[in-house]
Amino acid sequence: MPIIDTDVHESFSSLQDLVPYLPDPYKSWIAQGAWRGIPQPFCYTSPGNGNRADVVTDDGSPVASDYDLMRKQVLDEYDLTYAVLTGYFYPTMLKLQYGLGTALAAAYNDYCAEHWLAKDDRFIGSIQIFARDPQAAAREIDRMADHPQMRQVMLPVVDDIAYGDPTYRPIFEAADRNEMMISFHHTTHAQGPYGMGLHYMERRALLPVALMPQVISLIVNGLFDNFPRLRFMVLEGGFSWLPHVMWRLDRDYRMGRVEVPWIKKLPSTHCRERLKLSTQPTEDISAENWVKLIELMGTDEILVFSTDYPHFDFDSPNAAIPRGLPDDLREKIFWKNAAAFYDIDIPPAAASIAAE
Amino acid sequence: MARHTVCRVQDLPVGEIVPVNAGRARLVLSRLKTGEVKAYAGRCPHQGAYLEFGCISDLTEAERPNEVSVDPSCSVLRCPWHGFEFSLENGQAVVADDHGRFLKLRPFDVQIEGDDVIVVT
Lengths: 356, 121
Prior knowledge:
The complex is a heterodimer. Helices cover 38% and strands 10% of the residues of chain A. By secondary structure, chain A is an alpha/beta fold. The radius of gyration of chain A is 20 Å and the shape is globular. An eight-stranded parallel sheet of chain A has the order 1-2-3-4-5-6-7-8, with helices on both faces. Chain A contains twelve helices and eight strands. Chain B is mainly β. Chain B has a single domain, classed as Rieske Iron-sulfur Protein (3-layer Sandwich), CATH 2.102.10. Chain B contains no helices and nine strands. In chain B, β5 and β6 form a beta hairpin. Chain B is globular, with a radius of gyration of 15 Å. The model of chain B has no long low-confidence stretch (mean pLDDT 97). Classes of the chains: A alpha/beta, B mainly beta. Chains A and B meet through α8 of A and β5 of B.
């Protein structure tokens, strides 16, 4: 069966990898060590410090910075048809001067194109932006959208203004005119209402709480209505919460339409038509409950498979999606729903396998 | 079928909800901008709130976020409990539920005879 992995994290070895792609003065700042990035804001125990402990590079450089290792451990290991590179470094998280943030995003895109996308036709790219400067972010989308492997704009979760806010509108306009899709991913800014939590399981359990508001914000602020060609994907944010959000928003729309008459469809309809949620991290629910949950969503065309390589809570294509699910549903989760989202064809070889 | 003289036309200002009793039934009346008088059952079909505590406004509309206008030809009654909107023209909820079904206020025939407003129950 073809597999489209919608969430694979690639990285540079260090910020120094971006130096060749940066303009001055930022080039010299990074090259000379005037700014060395940000440390992780938490200290949780896990065998691989947040990553799979078997993802170890020969030279000791950070995980996910080695294409050959990624190819061996995930692309070839699971015979992925496509892997969507979603990044590790999100400039939008940096609350710093806009010029540097924008330059870092552009440098990262050029680095990624040369050192990742060019190496494997199976890669689908994500345009990284500095969303805090929406006009500059829109220009970066315009600049990168011609790359044949770029299919989406990555919006990392931030902790101040949700992405439906009119501030960000130029980003969606740029994505729309360039026929890019939109994906959201959590970050270290993703917190619950009482912060990150003191323990690993607390933080991990809170991640959906940071992604739900993005869906709510987008729909309520009219993004689904104003940009009918755009499709939206939430990565690594859980999925079992979607029926709740759909029911809640539908009721709230009936109660509050007077304030938001730009919404022309029930929010649940918008979700069913144009929202995708990645499966990783799957929860330990039975095949029977997967089916119940999908029935509650009202469509089997929302879930898309992801491994989240190289992270600690990696989902194996061989085990994460119950084999007890109907074959046609597994096909939709493993590749058909993602292929529709990205408007891509699967390669002939994979297509022939799919037809068998 | 019973005819109830419930009030006079001049008791019904445009844009206001006027509760009346018609026999044992509690109703709400409202006079539209066209002059037509509408009468509906006094409780919301959603959860039974007394509609006389609701409010009337023109239907809001927008094609783009934060560019809200109103349709002065379409007045809606908003329920006092949950804010559901009902067209005063036909009593139908503005928003359907997720099965495509519209709640609807129960209408009553209204007859104007002289200054008298008569509701048929």
